[in-house]
Amino acid sequence: MTQPHQIILLAHGSSDIRWCETFEKLAEPTVQSIENAAIAYMELAEPSLDTIIAQASRSGARRFTVVPLFLAAGRHLRKDVPAMIEKLEAEHQVSIRLAEPIGTNPKLGLAIREVVRDELGRAES
Amino acid sequence: MTQPHQIILLAHGSSDIRWCETFEKLAEPTVQSIENAAIAYMELAEPSLDTIIAQASRSGARRFTVVPLFLAAGRHLRKDVPAMIEKLEAEHQVSIRLAEPIGTNPKLGLAIREVVRDELGRAES
């Protein structure tokens, strides 16, 4: 038996509402079809990672996987997010796995090719 | 008849080689199967947008579509890139269309859901 898992799609966040709306739409297919999945922001927007982990841990979640909605790992994913996670694990007595940024999964490259095909169709219609 | 089109996948760029390698892999399926597609970087890495546009325009390309390998539009895509494009259009006498960032295409959200499924499989195996 495995424990249920809380999935957190982690986006950068911004004070620009349009930025957050794009990420909320990106998260929609996941949130709607995978149980215990939510979006959270690293900074500048709510819900924060802290808010989501506090909430889920109050509901009994102990295991989390953070999937970064970042195409590649820069300073944030190499330093800032691991430090945030370490602090949150201690604070909430939970276990949090930081997955690779989505852009390292080959499925993203295939999706990008389809997006480019859409753009070519748009440009030539 | 429509003119042939040069597609440019535009990534942010970084002095960190691992960052660029991730984007080169992301671009691979597109570059390998769509004619006249190349990756370029906005800053901090080569080939730059300028390099690619200069090269392609020397080979006769007059129409470009820049597809931003960004999940959402922030200051770079709202201000910096349009300004770069305006300058490059004048300089090289070409027409450059800036597409929406890839994250606004619903195909990305579906790919993210599949990435999350992969992560759940990884976490529970």
Short description:
Chain A has 125 residues and is of the alpha/beta class. Chain A has four helices and four strands; from the N terminus they run βαβαβαβα.
Q: How are the SSEs placed, and which strands pair?
A:
Two copies of one chain form a homodimer.
Chain A: E1 6-11, H1 17-33, E2 37-41, H2 49-58, E3 63-68, H3 75-92, E4 95-98, H4 106-124
Parallel strand pairs in A: 1-2, 1-3, 3-4
Give a description of the structure.
Chains A, B: This is CbiX/SirB N-terminal domain-containing protein. Chains A, B: Pfam families: CbiX. Chains A, B: Keywords: Lyase, Metal-binding. 2 copies of one chain form a homodimer. Chain A is an alpha/beta fold and 125 residues long. Chain A has a 4-stranded parallel β-sheet with strand order 2-1-3-4, with helices on both faces. In chain A, strand 1, helix 1 and strand 2 form a beta-alpha-beta unit. Chains A and B meet through strand 1, helix 1, strand 3 and helix 4 of A and strand 1, helix 1, strand 3 and helix 4 of B.
